């Protein structure tokens, strides 16, 4: 048995001894995790700076604050979430009582990406622990410093028979060859397919939190300055390396010039010489840096586009003459490049979005409430905002997840707990009354209906 297989076997043994079932245990583990994270805050922020050059303020807002929010919610609500739920009986089960039990799966695998390496490793883990599972965590090999820190932190907090963080460079095939009771994957659709294929071998259920090209529609009634400010904020956070960032803008032609101008002014005001600023995030690695440089080079019209090869930073860049057949529209951008495409009729824009994979997010800027409502109902996407961006991720009362190519399953708050729980239906009956007509033989005329 390989070493990973041994770890999983140890977790199953721990789980099968019912050690993770008592709520007191789960709450204690969540408490321990929170204490350690609070103690290690400076080290976490330092690691995020080393990996992605995230400033303390940005890293706190987009990683730590979200983790604390999940911890607070789970610790406060766990007793309610985990309650056995009594539901109405049916005529067939009368007079039995009917219940739903929330049952943990067992030993689960959590696979995390590099762009929000702390938040996207720890938030699913909080949900897995709350639901009473053991977990193997695999962080990304790209976010070297944060992944190493998480590994150390989890080792210090938990026994390996409960939570084990495997090396970020663990062989992928070996990792996916193992049998888990659930797999929670955050990453690209390409690897999502590999994970799902491997999971099918053991009929392991999966949640896939994937990515894609998320559109932002700006219609002519929109407050253009507000739209520009919010789009720029959401797009250039983490230098565009955000799964729910606006990937491209679809703007009504009549207001396109005004939007481009407002975006350019916003960039000048808030991201002046960003590529030289310490507080502006870097591109994760040379491969992605070069990929993004290539996307800029392929465009004739570019606003911005300054880069710093040494620090691998790319300033916010507008691609104001982009179109659907351009290179930048063929794959998820995942960087600070913003294609802006004009449309004349809203129906055309809707058609273009529908012709592509279902996105993880969609944003709509308009003052016309009916138009916004119509778009929400016509388009399929994971989640989104009207007159804003990204905010759907920050509210743990909202389920977070994709649809179609952008993923399956949801988490955050109660939804995370539910994701890591099997809903077990139980009917509790007694011996009386024992109505005879349900029993064989079912000869003709038994029930004269
Ligand atoms: P990725 O798919 O390359 O990697 C994700 C994780 O899978 C990493 O831990 C990686 O080591 C591992 N991995 C890579 N190849 C594997 C294989 N063959 N078998 C098993 N595991 C493998 O994704 P990434 O580059 O780290 O992240 C970027 C992608 O993630 C983007 O598409 C982005 O949109 C998406 N994303 C989605 C969300 C979300 O919540 N939906 C959040 C962040 C990022």
TrEMBL record:
* Protein name (database record): Aldehyde dehydrogenase
> Which family is this sequence assigned to?
Belongs to the aldehyde dehydrogenase family.
Keyword Lipoprotein in annotation = no
Residues annotated as domain Aldehyde dehydrogenase: 9-426
Keyword list (alphabetical) reads:
NAD, Oxidoreductase
**Classification via PROSITE patterns:** ALDEHYDE_DEHYDR_CYS (PS00070), ALDEHYDE_DEHYDR_GLU (PS00687)
Q: Does the keyword ATP-binding apply?
A: no
Q: Which GO terms describe its biological process?
A: aldehyde metabolic process
UniProt GO molecular function: aldehyde dehydrogenase (NAD+) activity
The catalytic site is made up of 209, 243
Any one cellular-component term (Gene Ontology): cytoplasm
